[in-house]
Every structure is written in structure tokens, then in C-alpha cells.
Amino acid sequence: MKNKFLTLLILLTICISIVGCNKSENNKKITQNNPKNTKETAHTHFKFEEYGLEYDLPKTWIKYKDKKQLDIDIYDNTESKEYLIAQIKYGFLSAKDINKLMKLGKNAKTQEAQMKFLLEYENSIKKICSIVVFDKNKENINQREELFSKYDNHEQLKTNENLEYYILYNKKYDLSGLSENDKKEYKEICESINDLKKSIKISKPITQKEKFDKYKTVSFKTKTTDGKEIDSSIFKNYKLTMINMWETSCGPCIKELPDIQKLYDEVKKENINIIGIVMDLYIDKDSENLKLAKKILNENGVKYTNIIPNKELIDGLLKDIIGAPTTIFVDNKGNIVGQTIVGSRSKENYLEEINKILKNLK
Fold it and tell me: Per the database record, which ranges form the Thioredoxin domain (predicted)?
């Protein structure tokens, strides 16, 4: 799973198919649900409970984050059985590169232009550091050496049960292609890595299952994206309901919508329902995201019901979601049943889980 929540608004101009999801069992792509699941406070404090990591951005970094010059790239692999659990990469973008990328992004209408934009974006980033988390029980020397080769300094942080934590950075930074002012800004960021290291806290990881175990049922009274009143009593009309929680800024979420619609067309004949919860909408606000959500649903041919979360959902179930998309299942009484699925899946994967649940419901 790779989550890239870029600080640049130009990400919105990228075609969703370019940042589509890998639907293999061991490499699912998700988007961090910020701020709800990382508990990002004022965009300066990050907490990743799924791998027991917490830290504050250095004060000198915050102004560059606000200016969109701090790039954050998160690779999350907590559900696989691989050595690398997570990698959080920080990079720097000069003001000149941001302006150039903004123009490229706005004009990226074709797939070729979008690929050019992404390549240009990656090439423009100057490395700051990486925080990596390994599962020491699945040690892979080659993978570790490949990661370490990109940085000349590798400091191990506190270990936690079977996990190892490292911070990787360069003592000598690549200043090529930067103006004198850019060099000064880049140096200022790189020289503040010690402040980042001091703030890092390691704790016991909490899985999505552990976070969801306290929820036995799903309840809501809200509106659909079409403005119709809806509440959780609809569950009683179906023997099983699949609930797919997604965000308008999440490429993998949007990528799987057509597959979920095909699944809905197939299972509704068996009295099985599917609803979506658009996590970045709010029932008490006239959000521009609602227009975007409706546009996304329309463009992907989605006919099944999608709802706007009310306060009960936001303060409850959605607060404890690790990443988007996340999918759960409820029976006709609203009880959560089966496995919680984090990350995108194919129609066949979802159908397999549905059939498994139906056997247990009999």
C-alpha cells in the first residue's frame, strides 16, 4: 500500500487511473485518512497507531509545509507479510519547481502528459529523510541495503516487540539545480532532522481489527449524497450490507468504484446491499467536496447509495479508521460481521468475503 498525501494542490489535477491501486493480496494501495486516523494536530503532529509511531514536525519544517514545499510520501505495508512495514519519506520542493509543476499539472490532459507530470514531480524532489519500520522476524538484507543505499546515515531508533525503526538521512545534501535561496531553505530543513529525531515516540502498534473490536453495530441518521434522508434501519431490508468507506482525494478508492458497482449489480439479486460512506464530507457543512463526490460517483457509473457521515459516524467508526478505503459488513440488525478490509480489492475478492460471511450467517 502506498499512500501519497502530497502537500501540493496540483495532485488534484492528476488522472485517477495514473495513481490507481494495486489489488494484489499483499500489496494494497490506500490513502491515509488525515486528520482522523493519523490524528494530525494542526498539521504538525503525526500518529500512526498501526505501526506504533508518533512524532512532531520540527518548527522549521512547518513554514515550508504551509508553503507546499514539504513533500510527504507514505508507503504502508502493514497487512502484507513482507520485511518492510512502512516508509515515510520527506522531501523538499523549491518554489520554482512548484510553479513549474502547477503549470504541468493543469495542462496534463492526456495519459502521456500525466505520466510526464508524475516523472517531473518525482525528479524535482530533494530528499530530506525517511523513517522506516521493519518486521525483524522477516529480515531481508537485500531490501534493507537497497533502502539504506539512498542515504549515507542510518540510525536505528527504539525497537518494539518484533518491529525495528530507523531514520535515514544524508549529512551531505544534493544542492544541484537549486538557487541560492533554495539552497538556504533546503539546508535549514536538513539541519533540523535532530529536532525530528527527538520528538519520535515508539509504542505498541494497534491493528485495525483491535480498533474496530469495540464497535459491535453501525448506526446513523443522515442524508445521501443526493440529499435524501436515510438511517441505519435500511439494514433490516437486506440479509447483508457491505459498507465501503472512501474519500474524494483517494485514488485507490475511486479506482475501485466501478468494480463495486458491478458487484452491486450482481449481489442485489440475492438481497445484498452496498452503501458507500464518503468520509471527507460532513452533514452540517455545505462542502465543495459534495460536488466533487457527486461528480466522481457519476463519472464512475455508481448507482448504489452513498451517504454523508453525520457526527455519530465521524466521532465513532470513522475516527478509528486507519486508511481509506476501508470496507465492513453488517447483518440485518446492523451488527458488524466478517472481516474488516483495509485497502482496495477486486470484485472477486469482495464477493469471496461476502460468500464466506453468508455461510456463517446460516
Answer: 211-359
Domain boundaries, given as residue ranges, for the chain: 2-202, 208-361
Q: Would you write out the chain's pLDDT as a tens digit for each of its 362 residues?
A: 444 333 333 333 332 222 223 222 223 333 333 333 333 334 588 888 888 999 999 999 988 887 878 888 877 776 566 899 889 999 999 988 888 888 887 777 777 877 788 788 888 999 999 999 999 989 999 999 999 999 999 999 988 878 999 999 999 989 999 999 999 999 999 999 999 999 999 998 887 778 878 889 999 999 999 999 999 999 999 999 999 999 988 888 999 999 999 999 999 999 999 999 999 898 666 678 899 999 999 999 999 999 999 999 998 999 888 778 999 999 999 999 998 888 889 999 999 999 999 998 86
Q: Cα separations (Å) of 352 from 229, 255, 275, 358?
A: 32, 20, 18, 10
Q: Cβ(39)–Cβ(51) under 8 Å? A: no
**Quick one: which of 17, 146, 147, 176 has its CA closest to 89?**
147
- Give the SS3 label for residue 70: strand
Find the length of the chain.
Answer: 362
SS3 content of the chain, % helix, strand, coil (to 5): 40, 25, 35
The secondary structure of residue 2, as a DSSP letter, is: E
336 Cα distance to chain centroid? 23
The H or E element that residue 146 is part of is helix 141-148
pTM above 0.85, yes or no: no
Q: Answer yes or no: CATH 3.40.30.10 is held by domain 208-361.
A: yes
What does DSSP say about strands 305-308 and 272-278: parallel, antiparallel, or unpaired?
A: parallel
- Dihedral angle at the C-alpha atoms of 119, 189, 153, 166, nearest 10 degrees? -80
Q: Which of 44, 48, 52 is nearest to 70 (CA)?
A: 44
d(CA 262, CA 276): 14
CA nearest to 122, candidates 27, 32, 12, 11:
11
Q: CA gyration radius for the chain?
A: 21
